[in-house]
Design brief:
With 271 residues, the protein is mainly α. It has twelve helices and no strands. The longest helix has 28 residues. The relative contact order is 0.13.
């Protein structure tokens, strides 16, 4: 378990360190006061969000994370899985990703409202032309390498019950988002991503699910940019029957896709 916590805290530390360095550099280059920047970081002054700065910080921290985890061989990256031509698994993974979106959104709607600590930051990134690359391309790769390729890989060697490993990795994945409003969805997706890694022994299906999930969320956020808190009920014009039918139809897509993935895969080499 020591390695698991090491990976987790290194991931967080890299993000924090890069964010501070980029903030300081950005402040000095723009001719602003460092005192004002530290006042914002400490909460004494209202935080000024700069989308370019956030995107640069996210990109650098992602690149540094990939470098560290690859250099230390905490996550082993090979093309073996793709060379096996698992196109049936890839196809059903995309279908499963689409099928889980509405049920997950519905669960978030019916749960008690939780504080959304990063809504303004996410909206700031989404409004930037380069936001898509950070949210939908970079984040899936980096997070899958850390939470499935490193953390879950080690957990699967520590516990005889693979579900214990998957649940722990999903909990850590939810916690690292540091935003109560995102945690339930992150935990559910984390369970699916963990199961996919266990079944395939590769982060590729997880990266695909992660990419589809983030891309759909990004598109919805762009469509409803002036109403970021919109619910499924509002999207369906207040018709709860239509909402429930869409959830049921989504499960009719999701469950067969999961069954097909289960049929097409053998147990992970990590089990």
């Amino acid at each position: 378990m020591k390695k698991v916590f090491l990976f987790f805290f290194v991931f967080i530390a890299i993000q924090f360190f890069v964010d501070v360095v980029v903030n300081v550099a950005w402040t000095l280059i723009s001719g602003e006061s460092l005192q004002s920047m530290f006042a914002e970081m400490s909460g004494e002054k209202t935080l000024t969000l700069n989308s370019n700065r956030i995107i640069v910080s996210s990109a650098i921290s992602g690149i540094l994370t990939l470098f560290v985890f690859h250099k230390k061989r905490w996550a082993v990256l090979t093309s073996d899985y793709l060379r096996s031509k698992p196109w049936d698994v890839v196809m059903w993974t995309i279908v499963a990703a689409l099928g889980i979106m509405i049920p997950s959104a519905y669960l978030s709607d019916i749960m008690p409202e939780l504080p959304d600590l990063s809504k303004d930051i996410l909206l700031t990134i989404i409004n930037n032309d380069y936001g898509y690359f950070v949210i939908c391309l970079f984040a899936p790769l980096v997070e899958e390498i850390v939470f499935r390729g490193a953390i879950l890989r080690v957990l699967l060697t520590r516990f005889s019950n693979h579900w214990a490993s998957i649940i722990i990795s999903a909990l850590l994945f939810a916690v690292v988002h540091m935003n109560p409003a995102q945690m339930p969805h992150a935990f559910i997706i984390g369970l699916l991503l963990g199961w996919l890694y266990y079944r395939t022994g590769s982060i590729v299906p997880g990266v695909i699910i992660h990419f589809v999930n983030n891309t759909v969320s990004y598109i919805v956020a762009k469509l409803f940019i002036h109403n970021p808190d919109i619910s499924l009920l509002e999207i369906y014009g207040g018709n709860n029957t239509h909402v429930l039918l869409s959830v049921a139809f989504s499960f009719m897509i999701f469950i067969p896709a999961i069954y097909q993935i289960w049929r097409s895969t053998s147990k992970s080499a990590n089990s």
